[in-house]
Amino acid sequence: MRKSLGVLLATAVLSLASACGGSGPDQRPAADRASADSSEAAAVADRPAADAPLTRENFVERLGDAQLEAGSTHLEMSTAAAGTDVAMTGDVRLGEKVEDSASRISMDLGMMQLDVRLVDGVMYLKMGEMSGGKYVKVDLTDPDNPLAQQYGSLTGQIDPSEQLETFRTALVDFDNLGDGGTVDGVETTKLRLVLDTSKALGKQAAQAERLGTKVPEKMEYVLLVGRDDDLLRRMTMDLAGTATTIDWSRWGEPVEVEAPRKSEITDLDSLGPKLGAGGALRG
Fold it and tell me: Strand, coil or helix: what is 182?
């Protein structure tokens, strides 16, 4: 079961998709930022029309721009492996930086209910009995925080834009397959992507290997994208026998997320070896 849980978590972390960008504030010199802003402005001017086909060269930009313009989304994920089912639901407000984004995510792991909130660049993580029924506050900018090291990527990928950057860097093959049918009343275009697994999964690939799961060299995604708005509607994938489906809906609806009350937050160190030293969470 522990191996299965590790694989499911690795898949979930990869599959969850945030324009919040897990690296935190932009530390580039002002001149570099200005140059980048000018390049982005030029790219906007040269952007293909919405009715132009999605291609390998333009799909990341097109989908990312549509998501930032929408500003928020609701997502539902289901994944299963080795007889273990995982269900996740959540709402995400997208931003250019982690401080501008917010999210609330609930994940049913069968043996444990995982609740995550992201507010003002701080992650609050509740893991049932493992955290005493309370939230652990995780400063994502603290390189010495063990939970920030392990779960920081979760908040960096709970909305679709971070996932799109993963597609850009790990892409091996791309096909626009045309009509993808209707999802939630929206006509879609079907895209097939093949990714380099080591680049796509990163540390999660190594974690899965340590847990005894052989990770394939390549992995395939199928995306269903709104034909008229370039918004992600559904993503499916299968990795090492773990099938995952994510549906996005309610694009642009208001999302408000509040930090837990002080009485609902516990100190990381007070939890002892279960969490403070990494323990069960360190894989």
Answer: strand
Give, to the nearest 10 degrees, the angle between helix 203-210 and helix 2-15: 170
> In angstroms, rounded to a whole number, what is the distance separating the alpha carbons of residues 131 and 64?
35
Would you give per-residue pLDDT tens digits along the chain (283 residues)? 333 333 333 444 444 433 233 333 333 344 444 444 444 344 444 445 557 899 999 998 898 889 889 999 999 999 876 677 888 899 988 877 767 788 898 988 777 888 989 888 788 989 888 888 999 888 766 667 666 655 555 544 444 556 677 778 889 999 999 999 999 999 999 999 999 988 877 766 666 666 566 778 898 999 999 999 999 999 998 877 788 899 999 999 999 999 999 999 987 665 655 554 444 443 3
Query: Number of C-alpha atoms within 13 angstroms, CB side, residue 72?
Result: 17
- pTM flag (> 0.90): no
Q: Is the dihedral of CA 78, 162, 23, 240 positive or negative?
A: positive
Give the span between the Cα atoms of 251 and 17, in whole angstroms: 14
Residue with tokens 């908040």: 155
5, 53, 280 from 114: Cα distances, Å: 12, 39, 14
Q: For residue 273, which phi and psi values (nearest 5 degrees)? A: -65, -20
Q: Which residues of 228-264 are buried (b: 16+ CB within 10 A; e: fewer)?
A: ebbbbbbbebbbbebebbbbbbebeeebebebbeeee
Q: Which amino acid is at 149?
A: Q
Contacts of 22 (CB under 8 A, 6+ apart): 98, 140, 152, 153, 155, 156, 157, 162
